[in-house]
UniProtKB/TrEMBL annotation:
InterPro entries documented for this protein: HCY_dom, HCY_dom_sf
Name listed for the protein in its UniProt record: Homocysteine/selenocysteine methylase (S-methylmethionine-dependent)
SUPFAM superfamilies: Homocysteine S-methyltransferase (SSF82282)
Keywords carried by this UniProt record: Metal-binding, Methyltransferase, Transferase, Zinc
Binding site for Zn(2+): C217, C285, C286
Biological-process GO terms, alphabetical: methylation
């Protein structure tokens, strides 16, 4: 459906939004949720400034810009914990797309896409549910909000198993949007539910193929064990690594930011990209900021 959307281009996407906001910018994010900032004038300005940094990186690297909405937590369960009902979530998901459209316009980006970001129903570090139909029903309102707001695609990140990925794909299809799904892995290269990336991707391909696949929220050194040289690797398009080599459990317990070793991050990311030349969308995840993503693209970091 969306095979031609990315074309033959490569794309800068952003870094670890939530960790950057909390640890580098001093922003309080209850429930690790950035989406409430969209409706606050000061918060929206902080978000716009954050995304503008990645527009500058894309311009310096002379590649496309793919911005992902700050809505990783903007679903029913996490929204309810923050006092957002269904109409409020619809409003904030739409407003998030509009915010990124303004960033793109102000940056004057020649090639730019806006992706509606979807997160797991539960915790991105714990194995999720096994009912694909329930997942499709659950995530459909998010996809519909993104479609109504004019997003170019849906991207589900930090998924922990095949069932929720299948559900997100079906939800995006029902809303008429192309869809990418990215999985997270533990230090052994397996998903939190113990399955392999290759096996998980095969199940999704069998039940509800996504347009693109990826890996996020894991250091490149943790992704290498998952790469077996199989043809499935050619389907990987997104890569958003963590800065730290710590495990998810260790990161969850930390009260300070681990920015990682930048040389190790860039070198190990290069190794992953050499093994998976199909990766076209490159950014960061937890612990990364503009400095990490600029280094991954080999350009100066915006100041």
């Amino acid at each position: 459906m969306g095979a031609d959307l990315l074309g033959a281009s490569t794309w800068v996407t952003d870094g670890g939004l939530e960790t950057d906001l909390i640890f580098n910018r001093g922003v309080d994010l209850p429930e690790f949720a950035a989406f409430p900032l969209v409706e606050e004038s000061e918060g929206a300005a902080v978000l716009a400034g954050y995304y503008a940094e990645y527009a500058a990186i894309a311009a310096a690297a002379a590649v496309g810009l793919l911005l992902e909405t700050p809505t990783w937590r903007a679903n029913h369960d996490w929204g309810r914990a923050l006092g957002y009902d269904a109409p409020a979530l619809d409003r904030v998901n739409r407003a998030s797309v509009a915010l990124l459209r303004r960033v793109v316009e102000e940056a004057g980006a020649d090639r730019a896409l806006v992706s509606g970001s979807v997160g797991p129903r539960g915790d991105g570090y714990l194995a999720g549910g096994t009912d694909a139909h329930a997942a499709a029903t659950y995530h459909r309102p998010e996809a519909e909000s993104f479609a109504a707001a004019g997003a170019d695609l849906v991207h589900a990140m930090t998924l922990t198993g095949a069932a929720e990925a299948v559900g997100v794909v079906r939800a995006a299809r029902s809303a008429g949007l192309p869809v990418a799904v990215s999985f997270t892995v533990e230090t052994d290269g397996r998903l939190p539910d113990g399955t392999t990336v290759s096996g998980t991707l095969a199940r999704v391909e069998d039940e509800a193929p996504a347009d693109w696949y990826g890996v996020n929220c894991a250091h490149p050194a943790h992704v290498v064990p998952a790469l077996d040289g199989g043809a499935w690797q050619e389907r990987l398009t997104w890569f958003r690594p963590n800065a730290s080599t710590l495990s998810h459990a260790e990161l969850d317990a930390m009260e300070t930011l681990d920015p990682g070793d930048l040389d190790l991050l860039t070198g190990s990311t290069r190794a992953v990209r050499d093994a998976v030349p199909s990766i076209a969308v490159l950014g960061g995840c937890c612990g990364t900021d503009r400095r990490h993503v600029a280094a991954l693209w080999g350009v100066p970091s915006p100041t």
